[in-house]
Every structure is written in C-alpha cells, then in structure tokens.
Design a protein that fits this description.
By secondary structure, the protein is an alpha+beta fold. Helices cover 28% and strands 21% of the residues. The strands form three sheets. The protein has a four-stranded antiparallel beta sheet with strand order 1-6-7-5. A four-stranded antiparallel beta sheet has the order 2-3-4-8. The protein has a two-stranded antiparallel sheet with strand order 9-10. The radius of gyration is 20 Å and the shape is elongated. Belongs to the FPG family.
DNA sequence: CCGACAACCTGACGGC
DNA sequence: TGCCGTCAGGTTGTCG
C-alpha cells in the first residue's frame, strides 16, 4: 500500500516499538525478496540498539548504535505487523526487542526489499543519490519544478512519478494532486506556467499532509495484532472512482497508460 | 528524450 | 464450486 504517506505512517507506528530498544532477535525467513537480503543482516542488527527511525521517499530507515542503517522498502504489498498473534504466510523478517515487542515484515508479492548500509553512507546509497527533493521539504517549490521540468515534453503525470524529479509520489497521490491542482495528467510538463506549478506544488503537499494525518489516526489499528495499514480510499477524489461524479459536476475518467491507470476529471482538469 | 512493455510475485475479484 | 482473466500501491531495464 505504500507511497510516501503510508511509509511515513509506518515509520511513526514503528517508532514507539523500536526507538531506544535493543533488538533481541532479528530473523530473516528467506534469503531474498525483490533483492537478496544482506547475509549479515541478522548478525549486524541482532543485539544492536535502535537509535532512530526515519524515511527517505518511500524507504524506511532504522539506525542502530553500531553505525548501521537498515533500509526497508515495502514494494506494492509490504507492511509491518506489530505484536502479531501468530506467524502468517509471507512474514519475511521477524524482530523481537528485549522489551518483548515483536514485529513481522509481511510482503506477499515480495516487490519490497531490505538492505543494510553504514549510516554515514546513506546519502550515497544509489537509490537516494539521484533522487529529487522530498515533496514535504523546503526544496520542493514551484521554482524548482519550473527548472526541473524545463524542456521536458513528457506528460506531467509521468514526471511526478519520476523519483529523480520529486521523491516519494506514486500513482495514487499523483492522480489526486493533479486533480486538486486542476491540471490534466497529459499536460506537457515543460509548458506549465509558474502560477500553475505553484498550485501543483501546494496540491502535492496538501494531499500528502492530509493522507499522513488520516494515517496517523490509524496508528492504533496499525499497532493492533492484526492491524491493517489501509489507504483512506474514501477520501480519494479521483483514484479508483471511474465513472463517479467529480465535485465539479464532471465524471471521473480512467485511462491505462504503460500498464498503469490514470484517473482524472476532464471537466475540471483541462490542459 | 520519450513511450511502451516486460519482469519481479501473490492475492482479490468478477464473469461464466 | 471452481476456473480463468484482469488488475493492484513500485522499480528497473530494454527496445524502437
């Protein structure tokens, strides 16, 4: 389920369980997810104290007092289960703290992965090195977008999904942000005016912030033994709503492009 | 540079 | 009931 807000909610949910805690056991249940799990992950994480948790784009970060950072990516179907009553199929990593809290990283499709870095080398991690700014950070501005999109003929939707332009957006929140900004997904990225980019940057921030706030309200569910970390699909205005009415009176349309669905309202998202 | 497509993998859902 | 096709939040690479 994980775009930036889901990963942020996940990290916030893991923090009270892990921060400051010593890891009694760290047990990979298989050798690989999308990529091989580092063979020394257990040895380097077990017995370490978690000093901080963080997030970069859609990646979760777990720092330890040994100078290591465990990176997790949830792919399409990954989630952490907190204090699970019993193991489930697709629990690929089990963690228990000395305080007796337990975590299971569950990922049926295994598009996610785990990695282990030196904390001082996180910025040089290849997936991060070429990444654009955080959309909720100070560098994500209309002026930045104007520069980053200059000369680009691709549709704005494709550019917002490109992690080198801005880091952390996925299909759902790109559709939602373009709708809020009233910009057509197919609009040529390099030809959007500064005022409209201002509207777009603000829409991206607003969509993410409200999703994180909504996610925050599920932290209790998240922490429950069988907790689900769900999308707040009820608050989506276009995603998954093909044929339903838009607030403007138009009808939400859907188009498949390169294997992904785009949802938008042609009435209020004109060019 | 751009778009299309495939690959990785499982599960949910609808139609018949 | 069950079988089959379709679709799903991401990332990476190839090909024209």
């Amino acid at each position: 389920m994980p775009e930036l807000p889901e990963v942020e909610t996940t990290v916030r949910g893991l923090t009270p369980v892990l921060a400051g805690q010593r890891l009694a056991t760290v047990e990979p249940r298989r050798a690989d997810l999308r990529k091989a799990i580092p063979p020394d992950l257990r040895q380097r994480m077990q017995g370490a104290v978690v000093t901080a948790l963080g997030r970069r784009a859609k990646y979760g970060l777990v720092d330890t007092d040994r100078g290591d950072t465990m990176v997790f990516h949830l792919g399409m179907s990954g989630r952490w289960r907190v204090d699970p009553a019993e193991p489930l199929a697709h629990d690929h990593l089990l963690i228990e703290t000395e305080a007796g809290r337990r975590l299971a990283l569950n990922d049926p499709r295994r598009f996610g992965f785990l990695d282990l870095l030196r904390t001082d080398a996180v910025d040089a991690y290849p997936p991060f090195a070429a990444m654009g700014p955080e959309p909720l950070g100070p560098d994500f501005t209309a002026a930045y977008l104007l520069d980053a999109l200059a000369g680009r003929a691709a549709p704005i939707k494709a550019m917002l999904l490109d992690q080198r332009i801005v880091a952390g957006l996925g299909n759902i929140y790109v559709c939602e942000a373009l709708h809020m900004a009233r910009i057509a997904p197919s609009r040529e990225a390099g030809r959007i005016s500064l005022p409209r980019l201002e509207r777009l940057a603000e829409a991206v921030r607003a969509v993410l912030v409200s999703a994180i706030e909504a996610g925050g309200s599920t932290l209790r569910d998240f922490a429950a033994p069988d907790g689900e970390l769900g999308y707040f699909s009820k608050q989506f205005l276009v995603y998954g709503r093909e044929g339903e009415p838009c607030a403007c009176g138009g009808a939400v349309k859907r188009r498949a492009e390169s294997g992904r669905s785009t949802f938008w309202c042609p009435r209020c998202q004109r060019s």
